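Quick note —
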Amino acid sequence: MIVENLQFPRDKCAVAEPGAGRGQLTLPLARKLPKSCKLYTLDSYEGPYRADLKVLMRLLRAEKLREKVIPLVGDVRDLTRFEDASFDIIVSNELFCELKRRELKMTSRAFFRILKVGGCMVHGNLSPIPESPSQRLLIDMDSSSKWSTSPARGGWFSPTPEEVASIFEETGFTAIRTVYVNMNIHYGSREAKRQLRTWGARSSFLRDRSRIIEKYGMDIPPEYITFCQKPSRMN
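Predicted structure written out below.
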């Protein structure tokens, strides 16, 4: 949905992908990029993500996309390395769960600065509002250190669509719209337990939620994608 809704300039362009990780979004994005465009990825690659840069580089070489993508190592909370109006497009997926509210506001202002006038921005995030007990599992686990060995940094599973839209509007972005996408990823009880352990669930969480897991398994919450634009005319 993110990639299909991006319109690339015909001339030379630059795209930024903060929080690229091992390239789940990078690869399909790079495949669609015109030859005249460059994709700059940015990630800190710290902690449990240390090995992701090697994975990304290997995948880019395997798909012969290395010339299109420029991987950078750095913190998305500090974008001072980039000059004003450096990018035509900024895109990310599941980045905002790693930022606290004040950091998200600060990063939104930085995105506004480095985006060209008339440029677009697209961010995908998993919804923090469960639609079923099986969706609540991942949200509850990841939102608290009581249940997870590595809870989301922001103290939230993810900001709500309304919070993101409000922050973007306050920053100065316009044409803000939200699209919802059902993930349709379901895990049976045995695989749900394995996945939850992989994602840092404590044994106490698995015991506490054992009835729900056995009855419903686990479903990944829907994703919402926020589109916006830096206005062509600045007040």
